[in-house]
Structure formats: C-alpha cells, structure tokens
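To: structure subgroup
Subject: Chain for Friday's discussion

All,

I'm putting the inputs and outputs inline so they're searchable in the archive.
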Amino acid sequence: MILLFLFIVTFLSLLFTLFALFEPGWADFLLISLPVALASLFLLLRLLMTQPRSVKRKSPRPAHNPRPAHKKVWAIVDGSNVMHWADGEPSVDPLYAVTRRLKKLGFSPRVFFDANAGYLLMGRYLHDRDFENILRLQSSSVTVVPKGTVADEEILREARKLKAIVVTNDRYRDWADRYPEVRKNGFLMRGKYTSNGLVLDVDVKVTA
C-alpha cells in the first residue's frame, strides 16, 4: 500500500511539475510540486531498494551414496566332469541341477568344458553360447576350451583368479604342484546325481 501511495504521489507531482514548466499560468505550482516530486521519488526509490528480494534457494542435493555393488562369489564348474555324474553317462541333467543349486546357494557359476563335450552330449560340436542356451545361463557363463587345450588348467587358473571354488569329482592330482590349493579343504566341491536328485558336499548358503 505504501508503495502504491508513493507511486501515485510521485506520478502526480511530476505531472504537475511538467505542466508548471510548460504553462506560464502554472508557474506558482513549481514551489510545491517540485519538492513533493523529488521527496516522493526519493522515498519511493529508497523503499524499493530496501524491499527483501525473493531468493530462490536451491534444494540441497542429496549426498551421493551409491549402493555398493554386490560382490559375486564364484564357483567354477568342471562341466566335462559333472556331466558324467548321472551313472557315468554324459547328460545335461546333472549340469543343469548343479548350476541351479549353486545359484540358490549364492554362487555365480562359470562352466568349463573340453572341446569334445558337445560330441559326447549331442553328437556335434557345441559352442559356448550353445551350452548357455541349453543350461539357461547368462552370456559369458560358459567356456568351451579350444581343441588340444586341457580344460583342467583353464579351470584352476580361473578359480585362482576369481578366488572361486571348483565343483568336480576330479582331484587334480597332476596339477597339485602348480596349484597347491587343490589340497585345501573346501576348494573342491564334490557331488553326485542320482534318481533322488543332486547331492553336493557343501550345501550351505554363501555368507560373503
């Protein structure tokens, strides 16, 4: 209200001052209109300068606290060994059962096969992706080693790299000097597959 009043007074006094400057008959009004115009203009400007400015405050950004990524606990599956767990005959059933059980226990499985595994199971060569589709595993979960390459060494090398256990009934005695961890309890997880289902040496959930 005060601002409006001062604005009106300033406007009218300036208007009267202009008339008094250009109309000789209004010259006497200068003695009143000019001081009023200057005073009201001064008060108006001062009042405008002292008005609190609305400052748009930025909302504080929430602290960036990324959730720690879930640390995977790996299990390397000796596919060429596990596929013989069903009465010694090659079968995908124990492979599927083992990978499913490992996931339920909290492991992330990676499966390694010898190059001839596909011929033993399906009568033809099977690539990594073929096995991933058969076992319903994610991409890069299966490795079929090249012909002439020993899968055992690839398995043990990857297990050491990932700090993983190895699911197999092979004891890797020929590799014990180079990979002494094969002698440690808990490094090799043995098992069997019968008509009653799968049994693993260690059926406990991962706590890491």
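Points worth raising on Friday:
The first helix runs from residue 2 to 22.
The beta strands are 74-78, 108-113, 142-144, 165-167, 188-189, 191-194, 197-200.

D.
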